[in-house]
Structures are given as C-alpha cells and as structure tokens.
Design goal:
The protein is α+β, with helices and mostly antiparallel strands. The protein has a domain of about 130 residues: Butyryl-CoA Dehydrogenase, subunit A, domain 2 (Beta Barrel), CATH 2.40.110. Helices cover about 50% and strands about 15% of the residues. It is built from 17 helices and eleven strands. A five-stranded mixed beta barrel has the order 4-5-9-7-6. A two-stranded antiparallel sheet has the order 1-2. β1 and β2 form a beta hairpin. α1 runs parallel beside α11, α3 packs antiparallel against α4 and α10 packs antiparallel against α11. The chain is globular and about 80 Å long. The protein starts with 18 loop residues before the first helix and ends with a helix. It binds decanoyl-CoA and flavin-adenine dinucleotide (FAD). Decanoyl-CoA binds next to α7, α10 and α14. Belongs to the acyl-CoA dehydrogenase family. Its cofactor is FAD.
Length: about 525
Amino acid sequence: REFFQQQSPLLGNQFLEDSALIEGLKRVLPQEVYSSIQPDLVQFGDRVVKDILELGRQSENNPPKLIQYDAWGKRIDKLVIDESWNTLKDIGATEGLVSIGYERKYREYSRVYQYIKIYLFACSSAVQDCPLSMTDGGARLLELHGSKELMQTVYPHLTTRDPKQFWTTGQWMTEKAGGSDVANSETIAKEITGGQCQDNGAGIPTHFVSGYKYFTSATSSQGAMILARDTDAQGKSTNGSRGLSVFYVQLRDKNTGELNNIKIHKLKNKFGTKAVPTAELELINTPGIRVGSKGRGVPVIASILNITRIHNVIHSVSTMRRCVAIARDFAHRRRVFTSTLNENLLYLSTLAEMELEYRAGLQFLLDVSLLLGKSECNSTKETDSLLRILTPLSKLYTAKQSIWVASEAMECLGGTGYMEDSDLPRLFRDTQVTSIWEGTTNVLSMDVWRSIKSHNSLKYYKDSITARISASKSSSSSALFETSIKLINKALDLIERTSRQVMEEGDLQFAESN
Ligand code: MFK
Ligand code: FAD
C-alpha cells in the first residue's frame, strides 16, 4: 500500500524570495550601489541554501571535541574541529563577510552590503557568524585603538579575502564573578620588562596575562581581545572597571601551533550554538599586547561590543526571516480539513504576525547598518547619537522577538517542527542565546538609558521616526511601513518602561524634563 507522503517545505533563493529585503535595500541604498551589489546578493542567496546550508548541518552534527590528554597522560588540550566548520570560515573570507566593511568600496553603504550578506549566511552557517562578528569587532577596535605595529601585523589578517591568510579573533570578557558586571574581573596583566619575550607574530608582547575566562567562544581562533586588570611593578592594581585594559593575545605558537600558555579546561555543554567551540580556559602568563589606553578597557572593548551587538541583530533577523520562509512555504503544501494552510485565515494571521515582526526587525537592521557606515565614514553628532541608542535598542528587541518567532515557526509545522531534522529546533536554540550574550536585555536597557543621558539620543531618535512616518505617507507601501514603525515604537516603549526601573531619583527628574 502507498501511504500519504507530505511534501517537505523548500527554501528558494534567499535574496530573490525576500521582497521586504529588496524593497528595504532600494530604500536605503543609492540606485548605483544597489545595481552593483545585486548580482553578488543573488549568487549568495542561492549558495546559502545549497553548499553553505549543507556545511552548516554537517558542523551542527559534528560539534567540536576537546582532547585534554594524550595516551601518555601529557596535557595537550587539542581542539578537534570538523572540516566543515573550517570550510565555512574560508567561505566567510572569500565572500568578504568581514573585509567588505573595511574595503569601503561603497563608502558609508559598505556596511549595509556586508551585513546583508551575513544576514543571508547566518542561519545556514551553524553560527559561523559568531567568530566572524568578533573578528569584525576586533578589526574595528584595532582601527580605532591599535598601534601602528598591530595594524601592520594583525589587522591585515582580519580583513583579508584570502582564506590562507584569514584569522578570526575572540572577545574574552566574562569571568565567573561577572559577565554583565566586568568590574569584578580577576584576570591580571603584568608588564614585561627586559626583553623577556619574543615577537610571536603580532609584535613584541608587553604583558603577561593570567586568569580564568569562563566563556570564550571561538576558541579555535588565532587571536583574542582580552579584558584584564593592569598591575604595576609592585603588583598593585586599581579595583573596579577603571583598573581594566584590553590585551591582544595570540592563541597559538606560530611555529608549533601549540597553545601559548593557555589551558582549555572544558568545552561548554550548551543548549545551542553547538558547532561553536565555546570554552572555559585559563591564561597562565600568556604573552599579550596592550591595546588602547591603560585603565580604559571598558570603553575600548565597547568598540567590539557595539559591532557584535549589531551582528546579534543580524542573527536574530536572519532567524525570523528563515522561520517565516519555511512556514510560508509549508502553508502551500499542507492540507488541513478542507483547504491548504495558505487559504486558512487563522493560520495566515499567525504568519502575518511573524512576518510583521520580521519586517520591523529588518528596518532596525537596515537602519543600524547604515548608521554605522555613516558614523565610520562621515561622523556627525546626530548620526553618532542615533547609532548609540539604536545599537542596544535593536539588539534587545530583535533578540526577544526572534525567540518568539522561532517558537511559533515550530508550532506552524506541527509535530514535525519539533523534530531535529526539520531544522527548526536548531534555529530556536541558536537564537535563544541572542538575548543573553552580548549583554542581557536588562543590561542593554541600562545602556539605552546611558545613551539617552549622555548623548541626548532619544530626541534624535524620536525626530527620525517622525520624519520617517511623514515620508512614508507618500510611499506606495505606507500601510505596511507604518505598521513596522509602530512595532519599533513598541520597542521604544519597552525601553522607556524598563529604563524607569533602573533610574535613580536624579535620572527620573532628567527624564521628566525631556
Ligand atoms: C552571532 C551574533 C553575535 C555573536 C556574538 C559573539 C559571541 C560573544 C559573546 C559575548 O557575550 S562577549 C561578552 C559580552 N559582554 C557584554 O556584553 C557585557 C555586558 N555588560 C555591559 O555592557 C556593561 O554595561 C558594561 C560592562 C559596559 C559596564 O561596565 P562599567 O565599567 O560598569 O560601565 P560604565 O562605568 O557605565 O562605563 C565605563 C565607560 O565605558 C564609560 O565611558 P567613560 O569612562 O568615558 O564615561 C561608558 O560610557 C563606556 N561604555 C559603556 N558601554 C558602552 C560605552 N561606550 C560606548 N558604547 C558602549 N556600549
Ligand atoms: P549575570 O551578569 O550574572 O546576570 C544574571 C542575571 O542578572 C541576568 O538576567 C541579567 O540580565 C541580570 N542583571 C545583571 N545585572 C543587572 C542589573 N544591573 N539590573 C538588572 N538585572 C541585571 N562572554 C565572553 O566574554 N566571550 C565569549 O566569547 C562569550 N561567549 C558566550 C557564548 C555563549 C553560548 C553564552 C551563553 C555566553 C557567552 N559569553 C561570552 C558570556 C555572556 O556574555 C554572559 O553570559 C552574559 O554577558 C551574562 O553574564 P553572566 O552570565 O555573568 O550573568
């Protein structure tokens, strides 16, 4: 007997099928820029559902392993990484997923181009966008604070398209005593005197760094930017976050490939992001080079945070779009009672709510990417203030909404949506972390409040929304656009309410008078 066989949902070209994206890009990019990058987005939109998706699935099914000891009991801390993960990294280089932002061929529009490519890539890549995001942040940190030497030795490796030369870098802040509140960091850095240390590929180390880092994603990277407490010749240090500086550490010896005075104690047993090697590790007099000013570690590393938080937006919006794409296609293929799901109003209203959240997220993503590009190429007070508020605001909002959309998408596919090989559990797990890493929702609410107080950013933001709404009245797609704006305003309300809870009396008076 032949039983009923349900057709599976299919994914087409993820650029060409994304009408909201095409419309949004035409809104923010000049015509000549759009025409120039469109063929590349078309080819990549196809690739991300073909070889890249297959590599992503292979990475997910073959997570990293740590071999701590060899047969003779010698500590080796060898990371075993599946070849698919390394291939995804190579693809990241050749497709320019970091370099596009630094080649700046399209001036302030380069970031939009770069980030839309990563948006297409993220959900197929087993979260390879995580190390790429930190590499992007590392390159920006070096551009802003790196010495001439680091710009010559490390920066070119982070921004190249040649996979043989390409390095990724991590961002190691979190310790057992503090992830949100890094003021409790226990890792220390001792100045190196008298030429005790040789150039290890990045230049002559300035400090020995020692401490225990509780979460280090991208442990297979070549380098890391580390937060550590500066000590003077007598071993004295300053308490709190103002005693912290940033150090660049080269993870492995350039000749032997062995870890440079680093012990990997364990790989984290995570709910999601299974392919990403996230470890707990110890630095034991690891040679490092101080980057930026002494005691300015938090503002210096914030130049990474402000980039990786935008990548978080990219990942969240990418998840929403992928979930909607799967659920929409399924609606054409699944029959319930008397009709297919795409003819069922109740089902369609669920899809519409998901689509709306996705579109609001996309507006955030396009806006914040464009602002970043403008701020880097032609900084103004208004651009910088808007970027300063929109980065944490869009991160915290899209993260929360993507978790909701991914959960709905599972339900949209019925029982099969709960099965591992439907891809939806992976999408759900991977996006759940977007509200935790790179600053939790509460912590980012406080960052929004910090930006309102020090940059007057709320005024600029409200003005920009008002201008957008009046401009959209003359546009053909104004109804949908206005709905998206309403959702963005909903995010702003959330922020205002949350911020109120963390305000002190003086802050409250400040808020009332604004
Ligand atoms: C796939 C997509 C993404 C992939 C992600 C990759 C995986 C990585 C995973 C990670 O999670 S990495 C670790 C992420 N950790 C965090 O996000 C830490 C969250 N905690 C915060 O953000 C806290 O708010 C913070 C650590 C910044 C608080 O530190 P402090 O020292 O108590 O803050 P304070 O005193 O308010 O600010 C110190 C200075 O930094 C101030 O400047 P000034 O000294 O000049 O006044 C602040 O203005 C500045 N600052 C703080 N946040 C800033 C900033 N400047 C610019 N931008 C910011 N966001
Ligand atoms: P805590 O800071 O202890 O927070 C606990 C709770 O308290 C949270 O709900 C938080 O919102 C709340 N809270 C904290 N402060 C306040 C406040 N002032 N007001 C109200 N509520 C507050 N870190 C790195 O440095 N590098 C990495 O590569 C890295 N990779 C990671 C990978 C994964 C998969 C995960 C899950 C985490 C990773 N992290 C990494 C760590 C991550 O950044 C931290 O877990 C996160 O910043 C929260 O810190 P915490 O875990 O110490 O929680």
